[in-house]
Amino acid sequence: MALRFEILGRFNRARAARLILPHYECQTPLFMPVGTQGTIKGLTACQLEDIGCQIILGNTYHLALRPTSELIDELGGLHKFMNWPRALLTDSGGFQMVSLLHLADITEKGVTFQSPVDGKPMLLTPEESIHIQNRIGADIIMALDDVVKTTITGPRIEEAMYRTLRWIDRCIAAHKRPHEQNLFGIVQGGLDPVLRDICVRGLVKRNLPGYAIGGLAGGEDKDSFWRVVAQCTAALPEHKPRYVMGVGYPLDIVVCSALGADMYDCVYPTRTARFGTALVPEGVLKLKHKAMTEDMRPIDPTCDCMVCKKYTRAYIHCLVTKDAMGSQLLSYHNLYYMMKLSRNLHSSIVEGRFPEFVCQFLQKMFPEGDVPEWVCNAMEVAGIDISSCCDPFSSLPSKVEDTEVAGIDISSCCAPLSSLPSEVEDTEVAGIDISSCCAPLSSLPSEVEDTEAAGTDSSSCYSPFLSLPSEVEDTEVAEIDTSSCCAPSLSLPVK
């Protein structure tokens, strides 16, 4: 085992720790940006150090195709090849079973891919996956697992879980550098709690350096997502790191950290940057929107990153529509945001103020108190009271009629015209349309209505919080930006 994991602070299930790896001493919770082929698009290794990146994730499948693991090994390993002095993690290539399924054939022996480079078949066995990762030389390497989408049901889920357990033994036997590289096992089992439990117990028996929770963020609803995370973190060893794979939305990371997870990775922060979207405490800011044209403020006035210190929204708006430099600046900012979020999670747990941090985070992201129900349920299990962040009417009976029993008149909360004189309804007779008076913007911040005086239509700058399935992350493969469906889109000044 080539790591040490020392817990420095706790709040119920959440924990902050020191993760000591061969190349770097990390603090958890932590987010790992994805450098598929040994690079984060548009950023240098020095810039990644500047923003506080601790671990970069590389992809075994893609690195094996180009530049090849043999060449990387000859040149001294991936650290030296990409001039990265801190920690590295390589995945096993198993995720390509899902993302490139039309090119793959899965058997007990391994996975046969059709190479996207030359079209030739490429067999990836558990042994070969480990051998490739041994040559690449990352601090943490992942076992090859049988990955299936969580939306799939039936015997295929059970087959994949048991195959994952059989393959972990082959990975352990093939691992030639256990004192230099840490092999993590991956918990599979879909949304079936029985299968997840079997897989957790099977992996824990192998006494691995760390464990990952896989097979999520692939189409399941958020309520199922957090329940699987909660189940697995509760069953995994307390003294080993826990890694939830493929998670990159800030809200998801806060929830999973509250449930006891430590590590996360996703392409989301950099992928959404290439679509002109910035991460901000309120959600996301769409820099391509025309409202940014003359906005001379920084992306986030509370952010102290290089981009927010030196550049305005108007300048970046001009760049993202015409120049690749805009994507680079937004990638820098977004990863800085993620690293700062990780640091804040760590310090708030160590300093005993984690509940306050969670409430502040939610209040900024959901100023109207419309915190998603799945978040409320997850935080309740995590032992964190977020009632101060939630809709003040959330405690009312779900059926308005039920309030009559208690003798409570809530009619003013339910009828859009209830606050207007009753005679306004008579305007219908005169053919006067007063629909614009009936609070169509009631769910938006009040300052948005101020734009009406200037004759500005601001409705397109805001998007509601939609409980979309997590498979929206799959659109990243097709370079489709779905961030506006997942977080509030702020394109106007916030007073």
Short précis:
With 495 residues, the chain is of the alpha/beta class.
Descriptive report:
It catalyses: guanosine(34) in tRNA + queuine = queuosine(34) in tRNA + guanine. This is Queuine tRNA-ribosyltransferase catalytic subunit 1. It is a single chain. The chain has a domain at 4-276 and 373-382: Alpha-Beta Barrel (TIM Barrel). It has 495 residues and is of the alpha/beta class. The chain is built from 17 helices and 16 strands. Helix content is 34%, strand content 15%.
Quote the beta fraction. 5-15%
Helix content: 25-40%
Please report the distance between the alpha carbons of the first and last residues. 52 Å
- CATH architecture verdict of the domain at 4-276 and 373-382: Alpha-Beta Barrel
Radius of gyration: 25 Å
CATH top level assignment of the domain at 4-276 and 373-382: Alpha Beta
Uncertain stretches:
394-408, 410-478, 482-495
* Record field, number of beta strands: 16
For this structure, the CATH topology of the domain at 4-276 and 373-382 is: TIM Barrel
Secondary-structure class: alpha/beta
Please, how many helices? 17
The biggest sheet amounts to:
8 strands, parallel
Cofactor: Zn(2+)
Subcellular location: Cytoplasm
Keywords: Cytoplasm, Glycosyltransferase, Metal-binding, Transferase, tRNA processing, Zinc
Protein name: Queuine tRNA-ribosyltransferase catalytic subunit 1
